[in-house]
Amino acid sequence: MSFTRSRRTRALAAGALSAAMLSTGTAGAIAATGTPAPKPTMTRTGTPSVKPSRTPTAMGSVTVSADHKAIKVGDTVVFTGQVKGIKAGSTLVLQHLHNGKWTTLKTTAAVNKNGTYTIRRTFTIKGTEQVRVATKTDTLHSAPVIVKIG
Asked: What pTM did the predictor assign?
């Protein structure tokens, strides 16, 4: 009986010692970095999953469609769409892709009470324009649409 009690005591002591060593190592890691390193979780596919703090769709969204995909120089295109998560009266801007960067054009609209907007733009230069609608602060934007000016 004392032999099994002695074994239990040793096992308990070994477990306590292991726990103490592990916690000391974790405390040292926390002290070295200031915060513990995040541990990735595994999904069913076996790849780590990372949960973003805020995604653009969680904050809101902007859609856009153009009434014409191809126009002549000097014609006007009407861009319409809906927004979610953006207050009525907020300013939206039209942007175009210029030299690989999105540049804001001097064309704006306000969000209506029902969450819709309309932007009119007259294009004066021949070519292909890739445009999108964005909030004035550029925190949200639509997918781009292409307009060919000929």
From this structure: 0.62
